[in-house]
Amino acid sequence: MDEEYDVIVLGTGLTECILSGLLSVDGQKVLHMDRNDYYGGESASLNLTQLYQKFRGSAPPEELNLGKDRSYAVDLIPKFILASGELTKILVHTDVTRYLDFKQIAGSYVYRDGKIAKVPSNESEAIRSSLMGLFEKNRARKFFGYLQRWNPDDPTTLEGFDADTQTMNDLFTKFGLEAGTQDFIGHAMALWLDDDYKTKPAKPTMERIRLYAESMARYGKSPYLYPLYGLGELPQAFSRLSAVYGGTYMLSKKVDSVNVDDDGKFVSVTSDGETVKAKRVIGDPSYFGAGQEAEGGKIRVVETGKVVRAICILKHPIPGTENADSCQIIIPQNQVGRKNDIYIAAVSSSHNVAAEGVYIAIVSTIVETSVPEREILPGLQLLGKVEDKFVSILPLYAPTADGSSDNIFITKSYDATSHFETVVDDVADVWQRIKGEKLVLKKRENQEIEA
């Protein structure tokens, strides 16, 4: 390989494939490699045989009558797309939507006092919600009404509240909202991972709640979309985009080494005895030692925690969801005495990811104890009868440096959330580290995802 590239990308996880596509569109000469013979890396979708082979080393049990292999595309990392969120903007901006078909997720729910309820996102839903009593509904109605009117550029809409300096706690106090209401607003609508947001300026949270409501209003029922045939379709779509703009893809390419010069700067990658040069390299943590000493004895990634996930096969919809063919359920950490939320993402044959009558529900959270599977019990108990279950406990990694000094840019592991907003945050962060400028997505006229 005598050719020199602008960027070598290692791993075909969604984060890496989005960056590969965006950089190719930007005019960069990209070489993309993966040790696997399939797209998606940690974020791949597996058929039934692959799923059982990965977790059990055996074939699917015949007595479960799960149907044909090709009917399945089971996500290893469950995530939904917020209809007005950042991933949607990237999909539309890059025109990747031409390679994909989407279906709406039927409902978004939150756990409260031992049961689940649909998340209200506007005044009328708040009035009907079982999450609040009569007086609290009135307070919530005023809160959502204020957020709808709120415009930072129009002082008449602020009602004396300064979102840049006053905290979210201050805003909750202003409307007298109860702790349980704060829970579902902060975690199931603003999608914060913990309660730190309450003591910070309110503006980012207010914008997140408005984004959720806007996403909800776009299609109704829920704010989330999902690609038919599983999330593994997303990395492939961005790979196609990169190829259209001249990107080169190589699967089943084992990476022997990531090479640096005497100053510690990246120069090349060696694969199967061949070495190819580039100005910079991007990759997922598994290509850079994952906490162990990498080339030159430098630790490039550190473990920041662990995530536990349980992929569950059901033959019925999740109880309490009005027989929804799909849903998201968030269990706020305060409801179950934890530091981190528990997430449930459920899809079914309606999304071409399972045989007729089969549902796939994935429960996940950040590990806090020495018994991770016990930590997801509150989620598992909501599912009803589980036909089979596959549990994984995976470390979460983050880079130790921003890459500016050695031209090695490392992405983060996928967290426990059941939406893509944190993934796109990582894409934007890596883009800024590489380009020295913010990722700006141009809006295409009269275009949005059909679902």
Automatic annotation (TrEMBL):
GO terms for biological process: protein transport; small GTPase-mediated signal transduction; vesicle-mediated transport. One of its GO terms (cellular component) is cytoplasm. It comes from the Eukaryota. GO terms for molecular function: GTPase activator activity; Rab GDP-dissociation inhibitor activity. Gene3D superfamilies: FAD/NAD(P)-binding domain, Guanine Nucleotide Dissociation Inhibitor, domain 1, Guanine Nucleotide Dissociation Inhibitor, domain 2. InterPro entries: FAD/NAD-bd_sf, GDP_dissociation_inhibitor, RabGDI. Pfam families: GDI. Keywords: GTPase activation. The keyword Transport does not apply. Belongs to the Rab GDI family. PANTHER family: RAB GDP DISSOCIATION INHIBITOR, RAB GDP-DISSOCIATION INHIBITOR. This is Rab GDP dissociation inhibitor. It comes from Cutaneotrichosporon cavernicola. The gene is GDI1.
